[in-house]
Design brief:
By secondary structure, this protein is α+β, with helices and mostly antiparallel strands. The strands form four sheets. The protein has an eight-stranded mixed β-sheet with strand order 6-5-4-3-9-8-7-10, sandwiched between helices. A hairpin with a 2-residue loop joins strand 14 and strand 15. Helix 2 runs antiparallel to helix 3. The chain has two domains: 136 residues, PH-domain like (Roll); 142 residues, no CATH class. Helix content is 19%, strand content 48%. The chain is elongated, with a radius of gyration of 26 Å.
Length: 329
């Protein structure tokens, strides 16, 4: 009886002398196992975005879709996009990773354009933006040829658990997944005592002051990320109320900061609706927030979220200063 052993691209007949058969069989098996091993050591995630400056001399941030690859055999972290973004850094050169939940309007700037289109009308854009999308900011610090750099990626919800698990497995204690207990909830507009106050706002594209820690004050930093770079500095005002007063005013793509007395506050982001939460602010501490924006049928909506320093300050770096002040009566 003749027995045949079949492998991919190889058929060996047992009538061949055993000494002649063993060597090619061993080589083929070794080749196959090596190929499988190499592919298993690379983990690839598609549809990951990078948020980076439009150019070296333009502050605004743009999103570019790319591919994230973790190569365990070469111990290399790599991100590349069709727009030419290329981050390639060794595992040992990554110093810090922060994952931070984000919420944004479905469709982003695309939904905003459709909503404003005269033929499409607001209902079409609202259908696209009808639900809030929850993804993850993915911030990392790393060394590039002895120079310290940082990057901000956006991981889609459907792959966020796998990305976080993989990154945590690789980088261990260098990874932080933020989980603030403060969650924004709807607030009645009539409960805002400063609702009818008026503020004048100018966009300062030249100056870019940074907040400082004051030992007797609580430092509050708030950024309003734009849905698309072309809307930076434009559109409605988004106010931040701290109890009975407005302490910051933004438009899309701007940032503000304020120094408050320590104590318990109800912090509320307000546009045509209001959203916020209560929390205790302590002297000598910094607190970082995002005013997330959404297009409703006939009005702008907003939610307030507390976020990590790394993510908020990265977004502030890519935003214009909101130079605002109360209007004189």
């Amino acid at each position: 009886m003749r027995i045949r052993l079949i492998l991919p691209f190889l058929m060996i007949d047992n009538t061949v002398p055993k000494i002649q058969m063993r060597r090619p069989l061993a080589l083929v098996c070794l080749l196959l196992f090596s190929t499988f091993g190499l592919s298993a050591q690379k983990t690839v995630f598609d549809s990951v975005k990078i948020r980076r400056h439009r150019s070296a001399d333009k502050r605004v941030l743009v999103d570019k879709i790319g591919t994230l690859t973790l190569d365990d055999s070469a111990r290399m972290f790599k991100f590349e996009s069709d727009a030419g973004d290329d981050i390639e850094v060794g595992y040992d050169d990554i110093g810090k990773v922060v994952f931070d939940a984000t919420t944004h309007m479905r469709g982003g700037g695309v939904a905003q354009v459709i909503t404003a289109a005269p033929l499409a009308g607001p209902l079409v854009g609202t259908a696209i933006a009808g639900s809030h999308v929850n993804d993850y900011w993915f911030y990392l610090d790393y060394k590039n040829h002895a120079q310290n750099e940082s990057a901000l990626l956006v991981v889609p919800k459907n792959s966020s658990e796998r990305v976080i698990a993989k990154i945590t497995n690789v980088f261990g204690s260098r990874v932080t997944v933020t989980d603030f207990s403060e969650k924004g909830a709807a607030v009645k507009m009539d409960d805002l005592k400063a609702l009818k106050s008026k503020q004048a706002l100018k966009i300062d594209k030249q100056n870019h002051p940074l907040p400082e820690v004051k030992p007797d004050k609580a430092t509050v930093v708030v950024v309003c990320p734009p849905l698309a770079a072309r809307y930076a500095g434009k559109g409605n005002q988004f106010k931040l109320h701290a109890n009975d007063q407005v302490v910051a005013v933004n438009r899309e793509g701007t940032y503000s900061f304020a120094y408050l007395e320590p104590g318990k506050y109800r912090l509320v982001s307000q546009a045509e609706d209001a959203n916020g939460f209560e929390m205790e602010l302590e002297a000598g501490h910094e607190y970082y927030f995002l005013q997330n924006t959404f297009q409703g049928v006939f009005k702008w909506e907003t939610t307030l979220s507390r976020n990590s320093r790394e993510v908020v300050m990265y977004l502030a770096e890519g935003s214009y200063l909101s130079d605002w002040k109360p209007k004189e009566r």
